Amino acid sequence: MIKIYLPLLAIIGTLFFLSSCKKYADPPPYFEDDSTAAVVGKRKVLLIGIDGLSGKEFKALNLPALNGMLQKSKYTLVNAVDDAVTTDAASWKTLLSGVSFAKHMVRDSTFESLEQPEEGQVGTNYPSLFYFIIRSARPDLQSRIVSDWPEMLSSLTPEASFKVATQNDAATKDSVVAAVKNNDDDLLVAHFNGASIAGKAGAFSASDNGYKAAVLKIDTYINDIMTALKARPLYNKEEDWLVIVTGTHGGKGNAYGGNSDEEIMVPAIYYHEKMQSTEFVKADYSSVVINGRDGNTVKATVADGRVYDIGTGSQTIQIKIKGSGPFNWPHFMGKTTRFTQVGWTMFTNSGGSWCFSIRGSNTSEKRLQVTTPNLFDNSWHTVTAVIYDSAGSKWVKRFMDGVRIQDDNGTRNLGANPGSISSSDPLMIGWGDDTGFGAMTFNVADFEIFNTALTDEEVRNNLCLKDLSKHPKYTNLIGYWPCYDGFGSRFKNLAPGMSTHSLGLTGPYLWNADPVIPCTITPTPAGSNKAQVMLSSAGVPGTIFYWLRISVNSKWGIEPSNWLSLYETEFIGVE
C-alpha cells in the first residue's frame, strides 16, 4: 500500500470538486513511482496568464520586462489558445486542464460543460492539473493560484493547495511577490486581467492608449515578480525554475471569444536561466495524419450531411495527398462510405492507383478505375474529379497532377438521366465503412470544391496556386480546407461564407509537422534563432508535468507535450 500525505486544504478542495461534478466520472487515481532520475536542483514552475495579451500586438507594445525575458526563453507569438472559442472561461479551462474546447465544452464562468449528461448518466470530466498532481506520484508538491476571479478559484481549481482571492491586478501582483518571498510553492499560478478589461473598453491594439497602458502596467508587475523570484537565496542554485508567461486570449476590435487569428494567437514565453533564445514559428506544413480503420480511425468530417451534394448540377473536387500503403481497395474520402449507396467516393486498388466511384438516384454505380501512377508513393500528388453536363448526358473526368486519366477516352458517361447525386452521408476524409477493405496512412492539403466544372486548362494551370483568391473560378469555390492549420480539433473551411462547415477531426489524432510541403506553400526562410514548432495552451499542463517530473497517465486524456525534452542539454542541472 502507498501511504500518501496530502495537505489539508488540498483534501478539502478535492472533496468540494467531487461533490460539484457528481454527474461526471472522474479519471481513476493513478499512483506510480517517479521514473525520472534525480538531478541537482528542485524543479519549480511559475505560470503567469494574462487575459487579452495579443500575439499580433506584442512587438508593437514594446514591453521591457517581457522583451528582456526573451533572451533566455523559448517563445512564440503564435501560441494557439484554441481553434473555436476564446472566452475567459474556455481559455483558462484549456490552459489548466490540457484539453481543447472541443472536449471540455466549457464556455462561461459557471465552468460547466455545455454537454451535460442526462440525469442518471455519466459524462466525461476534464479537471485541472492540480487534480492530477495530488493523484500522481508526487502529491506532496505544493501549489498556489492567485486571482481576482472567484469562480475560477472555486470551480476550476479547487484542488490547488492554496487559493488566494484578490481584488485586482495590483493586489494579485502583491500576493504573488509575497508568495515568492515567503513560501515554498512548487507550482505558482498568477492571473492578470487588466489588459482584457482595457481592450473591451477601447481596442485590443497597441495604438489604443488605454490598452497599451494596461499591458505596460502588467509588464511592471512581471518585473517585480521576477525580481523577487531571482532574489530567493536558492534561485538557480538548488531551485530550478521554469517561468511560463502566456496570453490566455487576444482580441479583435474591442471584443474576444471567437476564432479569429487576433483572438486565438497569443505570445507564450518559456523562461529559464540557461535557456538559449529561440523563437518558435508556425510550421509551414503541420497537419493530422489520416489513418486507421474500423473503430480506431482518424477522420475529418463535415458535420452537416446536407451540404456538398452534387445533386443534378456540376462540381469539381480536388485534393492533395501524400501517403503510403498497404492497400486493399479502401475508400479514403467521399460523400458516401459504400459503393452501393448514392453519392461519390475516392478509393484505391491494390497497386495504389486512385479510383473514383459515383452513383445517382437513377443509375447503378459507375467506377473509374483505369490504372494511374501510384498515388501513395510518399510524394505529394493532386487528384481532381470533374462532374459536368455535356451533349444531353452527365460525365466524369479525373486528373492526377493535372494530367487527364484515360477513362473511356478520358471520361465516363453516367447517361442522360442519372438522377440526383445526393447522399445524407457527410463529406469525409478517412476510412469508409465498407467491411473487408484495408486502410492507408496519408496527409492531405488544399481540399477544394467548386460548384462548377473546371476546364482541363483551369485544372492544369492552378495546381500550385499559392493564393486561391486568384483562381479564375474563385467565385464558384464552396469549400476550401488547407488542412495544415497546425492545431485544434478541425480543418478550417476558408471558402467565402462557409466557415461553419469545417472538417471536424475524430479518433486518436495528433498534429505533426512534415518538412515535405505541398507546392502551394512558400517555405519559410531558415533563421538562426527560429524553429518551426507549434505550441498551444492545451499543451501547457503536459509541459509543466514534464518539468515537475510527474509521469502522465494516458488515461488522463491531456494533450501530449514533449517539446521541452528536445532542449534538455541547455538546462539540465543547476550550478
Core attributes:
alpha+beta; Alkaline Phosphatase, subunit A; 2 domains; nine-stranded mixed β-sheet; 28 strands; 26% strand; disordered N terminus
Model description:
There is one protein chain. The chain is an alpha+beta fold. The chain folds into two domains: 290 residues, Alkaline Phosphatase, subunit A; 228 residues, Jelly Rolls. Helix content is 20%, strand content 26%. It has a nine-stranded mixed sheet with strand order 6-5-7-2-8-9-3-10-28, with helices on both faces. The protein has an eight-stranded antiparallel sheet with strand order 17-16-15-14-22-12-26-25, with no helix packed on it. Strand 18 and strand 19 form a beta hairpin. Helix 8 runs parallel beside helix 10 and helix 9 runs antiparallel to helix 10. It starts with 7 loop residues before the first helix and ends with a helix. 49% of the residues are buried. The N terminus is likely disordered. It comes from Niabella yanshanensis. InterPro entries: Alkaline_phosphatase_core_sf, ConA-like_dom_sf. This is DUF4983 domain-containing protein.
